[in-house]
Amino acid sequence: MRIVLLGAPGSGKGTQAQRLIQAHGVPQVSTGDLLREAVAQGTELGKKAQSIMASGALVDDDTILGIIRERLARPDAAAGFILDGFPRTIGQADALNVLLAQLGQPLDAVVLMEVDSKALFDRLTGRRTCRTCGLVFNVHTAPPPSPPPCDGRCESPDLFQRPDDSEATIGRRLEVYEASTRPLVEYYRREGLLRSVDAEGDIDAVTARLNAAISAQ
Ligand code: AP5
Question: Where are the domains of the chain?
Fold first, then answer.
């Protein structure tokens, strides 16, 4: 399975990708996660990306494409992948087409996760991540169990809020999505790859709709 999860910040790409990994046995490739790892490790890439991410802007295409080329060359991506948060610009989508043609691994589908902008804002302001086990919660819609441990994977939940989930930065990220990433909906519709999923409501119900969209011919 080779798919792109396309959608605004907070549309549930990461949440659903985690479920698809288990169901389909292919890795999630999240450019946001790869950039956050680089920031945490203090690499040159991380130093360059940190302030850009905190502002809600996009990291430049050349940098992102370097990360993607390296990640898709790893053995675990040979059987397929779930692209989460990439591509995000027309330039990235064009470069992905070239790369996948070289690898002989064309995309099966691009799934648009559709969520109302008010719900996106609530999801992003409420998101909390466990620093220890990496699980993502939401103070409004998916709170961590109390008392700890949060899921048995770690001793105690150590929740933090992503720096780019501040109200001001969320607004900027949603603007950037509309200006730079929304045009990909039409791009992939023209390529015959686009499938849309109602990504609001119960997380299990969204997973069921997503799986149905992926398996539809
Ligand atoms: P990235 O990490 O990719 O962030 P994003 O696309 O803004 O997406 P999010 O991670 O915020 O949301 P999500 O859709 O994964 O939602 P989630 O499942 O967590 O990118 C961060 C930054 O890195 C960018 O701004 C940019 O600077 C840079 N970057 C990354 N990729 C780049 C690229 N390709 N090019 C250039 N720059 C790049 O869910 C959100 C919350 O909602 C959670 O709390 C969750 O529990 C909750 N939730 C999920 N589903 C539901 C549901 N059905 N009902 C209720 N709550 C739900």
Answer: 2-114+182-215
- All residue ranges of the chain with pLDDT < 70 are 145-157, 217
pLDDT at 156: 66
Fold for 2-114+182-215, please state it.
Answer: Rossmann fold (3.40.50)
Examine the residue annotation and report whether 172 is marked as an active-site residue of this protein.
no
**Terminal-to-terminal C-alpha distance of the chain:** 13
Active site residue 69: no
Atom of ligand 1 nearest to the CA of 17: 18
What global pTM score does this model have? Answer: 0.95
For ligand 1, atom 40: residue with the closest CA: 10
pLDDT of residue 71: 96
Closest ligand 1 atom to 30 CA: 3
Catalytic annotation present for 13: yes
CA distances from residue 77 to 14, 33, 72, 73, 74 in whole angstroms, order as listed:
17, 16, 5, 7, 6
